[in-house]
Design goal:
- The protein is mainly beta.
- It has a domain of 65 residues.
- It contains 1 helix and 6 strands.
- The strands form 2 sheets. A 4-stranded antiparallel β-sheet has the order 1-6-3-4, with no helix packed on it. It has a two-stranded antiparallel sheet with strand order 2-5.
């Protein structure tokens, strides 16, 4: 867990076939949605058992608890829009 609303699940076993293999993870009670792969279904957990998830290509999965918000921005977008006012506010937000 990274705080009360963000869960990092790391693979502990080698996976040969990401289409058919799964890994088991514990989730606290609640609804958890994968924020790195929005095509996956959200996980509904009662907090009492391990849940099987597709192994995936990455070595980790990051889930956010339902109802929570994380604000982040693509770094390449920041680099493309370097025009700023002296207050540090990007100009496209002031139009």
């Amino acid at each position: 867990m990274i705080g009360p609303s963000l869960k990092l699940s790391i693979k502990t076993t080698e996976v040969e076939n990401t289409m058919t293999e799964t890994n088991s993870y514990y989730f606290p009670k609640g609804v958890w949605c994968d924020i790195l792969n929005s095509m996956d279904d959200c996980v509904v957990s009662d907090g009492t058992r391990m849940i099987e998830l597709k192994a995936g290509v990455q070595d980790y999965q990051l889930h956010l608890k339902d109802g929570e918000i994380i604000v982040y921005q693509n770094v390449t977008e920041i680099n493309k829009n370097e025009t700023r006012y002296s207050t540090g506010i990007r100009s496209e937000y002031l139009q």
